[in-house]
Design a protein that fits this description.
Oligomer: single chain
Number of strands: 13
Strand content: 25-35%
Distance between the termini: 16 Å
Largest sheet: 9 strands, mixed
Strand order of the largest sheet: 4-1-5-6-13-12-11-8-9
Radius of gyration: 16 Å
CATH class of the domain at 5-119 and 177-204: Alpha Beta
Low-confidence stretches: none
Number of helices: 5
Helix content: 25-40%
CATH topology of the domain at 5-119 and 177-204: Rossmann fold
Length: 206
């Protein structure tokens, strides 16, 4: 069976004891792949390797991309780490648009996709932990586990909202024409798949 990869962006962490920037992923992502993406291998993307190198060298075995959580967007909390990550993930989004490569943004990753298309953000203190969302596709309410200080207040074409929080901020969206999706809760954490409909729709595109 040929190998099939899903690239996943990583959190950037600055060591406090001496200057070193590290790339990191939660162990929960490994468990998530085993349970929900069996048949695909996670490929952590290094910010020092241009994304186009991955895309070209993997020769068709790169089937999708996940933009993971962690770090604020640079426009919300300007710093060197956030800027580096924003620029790299911008390259990924552009490639996914051009090549119709399935892309899923999770938490910070969803914010980055929304920002790419000109979204507006607002600060909130009620999106730390469990809260209710309404899915406009399934017409169901679910309790999700969000951990972000900034919410998506407004998105722009060609994105469309498909789930909203009780404060009317956007918790999930999709691109109208491309296989690009975003969810603001952490699907890889405990109870993260309480609403799996958006993930499953993305998965069908792989």
């Amino acid at each position: 069976m040929p190998l099939k990869f899903i690239g996943i962006s990583q959190r950037l962490i600055e060591n406090s004891n001496y200057f070193e920037i590290r790339e990191a992923l939660s162990l929960e992502w490994g468990e998530f792949f085993l349970q929900h993406l069996n048949g695909y291998l996670p490929l952590p993307l290094s910010y020092e390797i241009p994304f186009i190198e991955y895309a070209q060298r993997l020769n068709g075995t790169l089937k999708g991309i996940i933009l993971s959580g962690g770090n604020d967007l640079n426009i919300l909390n300007a710093n060197q780490i956030s800027q580096k990550r924003d620029e790299y993930e911008g390259q990924i989004i552009t490639y996914c648009l051009e090549e119709s490569l399935p892309l899923l943004g999770v938490c910070r990753g969803a914010q980055r996709v929304a920002e790419y298309f000109g979204a507006n953000f607002t600060r909130s203190d009620i999106h730390i932990g469990k809260h209710s969302i309404q899915n406009l596709t399934t017409y169901q309410k679910r309790i999700v586990n969000s951990f972000h200080n900034y919410c998506i207040e407004k998105i722009r074409e060609p994105l469309c909202g498909i789930a909203f929080a009780e404060d009317f901020t956007i918790e999930a969206f999709r691109h109208k024409h491309k296989p690009i999706f975003g969810v603001m809760w952490h699907i890889e954490r405990e109870n993260g798949m309480c609403d799996a409909s958006i993930f499953e729709e993305w998965k069908k595109k792989l």
